[in-house]
Structure formats: structure tokens, C-alpha cells
Amino acid sequence: MRPAPVVFCHHQHAGQFDLGKSEVCGLRGDPDQVYAVELAQRGFVTIAPDAIGFEDRNWADGQNVTWFEQSSRIVVGRTLLAACLQEISLALDYVATLPEADPDRVGFLGHSYGGRAAIWAPAWDRRIRSSVSNCGCVPYRESFARAVGFQAEFVVPGFASEHDIEDVIALADQCRYLVLATDDDRWSRGAVGIQDRLTQRGVGHARVEVRSGRHDFPCSARTTAYDFLTDTLQGAEIL
Predict the structure, then answer these.
(1) Can you give the pTM of this predicted structure?
(2) What are 154-175's pLDDT values in tens digits?
């Protein structure tokens, strides 16, 4: 049997630091977040570790530790983003050793926090050939609004003075992106502007789709994501 394509499934944030991998793996939490399970049922190999500060990686009884994790790195010239991206690469290193996994067909899927990671991860690790970001595309230029703000994991000193999300996407030219956004979600703000700027720059490996809705990942949107991963990772068997 041909090895199956791999998808890294990154969990959401939602301020629930006691919850991470268990949600996307369908063990507890929101049933609309079980994309690691649903992709596995479609014939993919999925991997879904806890991000730093979540679930088994939380050392403060479910309290927010991510700003400590960030500040303790910033003072020595490092960032939490670099640590999180490195851990994604380590997870892909591991899954590449599994005989049932095809290391040449690697994808990424995430909602909210996971959706933000889905934009950054392919620029860090060029093994990622296809990535879907759901409700996590808000650019830095929109994040100065107090209703949005900056997530600790994506604070990079000086980055927003000259760059934004379009630069990250453009850099990962080995990856096909699908950016899913909604019209009533603060974490989807600026989605149309992202598409406009990508088009102006002639970036053809990403597309943005805006649907009616809030900060959610309903079955219809998940199906769109799964179909995109199937098409772009070439030959994933749908059961």
C-alpha cells in the first residue's frame, strides 16, 4: 500500500490552556474542531501535538503562560514563534519516520491560533506543500485595534514595521495556501485586503475565501479544507 500524505493538525487557542491536542483528536471539547480525526478517516496520517503552554504543556493549572514563555525568550534575543515553529518541524521529523506516512506529501491545517500557524509554518519548513488557515489570517496592520491585539506566539520585534502576512505567504512559494475567513470574525479581519495585495504582487500559490459566519469551523468549511488538501497533496484516498 502506498504511504499516505501527512497533515499537521494545529489546535485552536480559545483561551482554553487546559485543552490542545485532545480537541482536534476528538477526545473532548468542540465537535467542530475534530479535524485530525476526520482527516484520518479520509486516509491521511495526522499528527496533533500540544503547542507550548497548552494541555500537557501547561505548567500553571490551565492559566495563561504564553506571555511568560515569550518574554523569557525575548530578553535573550529569541522568540516564542521560533520555538513553536521548530517544534512543528520536530513533529514532522518524527512522522516522516513512520512507514505509513509519505514525507514528500505534507500538509497543514489549523483554526484560529492553528490558522495563524498554518500561515507561518510553510515559510519555516519547506516540506509543507499545502496549508489551510481557517479564521486566523488577521494581518498585523489590523491587530493594532484593541479588539484584536497581538497573540504572544506571533510577536516578532520589528516585523510589522516593514512586513505583514502577505510577505510570509509569498516566501513559502513551495506551498499552496487556502485561507478561509468569515465576514463576522475579528481574527479574519483584512482577509480581502490580503488577497488584493497577493494579487498585486503576482503571488499565485494562495487564495482567500470569505464566507458568511463568525469565528467557527463548521462541517461545510472543513469539507472545503479537506478537499483542498486532497487535491493539492495528490492522490489522498478518500474513504
Answers:
(1) 0.96
(2) 999 999 999 999 999 999 999 9
